[in-house]
Amino acid sequence: MSNVNQDGWSKVKERLRVEVGDDVYSSWFARMDLEAIEDGTVRLSVPTRFLKSWIQSHYAERVLACWQAQEANVGRIELIVRSAVLKTTVQPKPKAELMAGAGDIGNRFNGNGHGRPMAVSDPGVHEALGGSPLDARLTFESFVVGRSNTLAQAAARQVANGLRGDPVMFNPLYIHAGVGLGKTHLLQAITWAGNAAGERKVLYLTAEKFMYGFVSALRTQTALAFKEALRGIGVLVIDDLQFLQGKSTQAEFCHTLNALIDAGRQVVIASDRPPNELESLDDRVRSRLAGGLVVEMSGLGEELRLEILKVRVQAARSHHPSFDVPLPVLSYIAKTVTHNGRDLEGALNRLLAHSKLTGHAVTLEMAEREVRDLIRPQEPKRVKIEDIQRVVARQYNVSRSDLLSSRRTANVVRPRQVAMYLAKTLTLRSLPEIGRRFGGRDHTTVLHAVRKIEGLVGNDMALAEEIEILKRQLQE
Length: 476
Ligand code: ADP
Ligand code: MG
Fold this sequence. Notes:
Bound molecules: adenosine-5'-diphosphate, magnesium ion
Largest sheet: 5 strands, parallel
Number of helices: 22
Strand order of the largest sheet: 5-6-7-4-8
Structural class: alpha/beta
Mean pLDDT: 81
């Protein structure tokens, strides 16, 4: 390779980095090498098939354009997979190796990048595609429906009952709720019921498993096999999407999501926040996620908690027939233990353990002692600035980053002022500190916002009421 070529290549890489940004560049192009330039064709190599396919389908024209900006006579880019064999064996047949690396997709950028399925069997990938482990107890039968989850449960049922070839009613189905409110339960119920019906394969993956499967696929160069297998499933269920991290993972997630939805496959997602608050995802993914049915499950009400406890005791009795919890004890737990379903389970487990170990019947006194630390604190909640921003953003249908941004359009300015006002009145933070937390603003800006809202609530009943509601939500 002549130095002239390598110099040119460095400049092309620089241009590419500027155009796509550091993150994208290091995810996809950092390991791309120049192999040769012949007759207007630039041959570039990458270490994995996956990278090759990804770059071909997403960045082919960019790469070509960057080359053409540098060397006008470049007409074509050819991308090959560097085979490790090429470097280590003494006497390889370079041409043949190159062809093998590039062969299954075609030597040219073809704008789609999907090769035919590969017969690679990799336990990591297959395990990842086998889905995350399911808990046999988390079914529709054991899921108690109440005011806070009626819609989510109905939508989940609908998805689980869907038949192959049915039109998909809402896609994706996106369920969000705080911790312990039944997301995983509902998602696994869909998986059990859907697979029992046998019509469509339902695959349940935690976001971590998705990342793990993807990352290991990248390493073993079987990302295409991974994708092919993903395409074989009817319903993809992804739990805890908020844990999806890393630029390239997210890009792959976006790709998978689009591919599945466009092919009419159902996607179900659970997360601890609504799509517009998944700050690390880019706008297109967020809007795609928001484009289906977004359902929130709110805190478990007292009635629902009591029902859940009853179902749990019933289930426990099948293994421990002597276990009995009198209704007043159940009511006490339902009333005092936090909204979180996991704590309810924890409370019952302690009663069960205690009665097994001591042989004593469960009484109210014993329950009070055993679950003391699970009891909801009564003192008023400390309000955090993040919570204020989250709640205000949701109320006014803007994103949290809008609130922190320097945008000055009316639909952002007012919510921002409200949020600053609430931060001043509900927390002990100083004006400069609040300014810092709102995208590095000056304390005078915060003061202005506070005065502005104070002035407005005196005359504007609707705004005053809105602010009351926000305060109540935050202090609940
Ligand atoms: P999340 O995934 O939202 O954090 P989980 O689905 O793990 O919450 O639920 C926590 C616990 O509460 C589980 O034991 C679950 O079975 C129980 N639970 C939550 N909601 C319900 C419900 N509606 N009916 C029955 N059990 C529930
Ligand atoms: Mg969960």
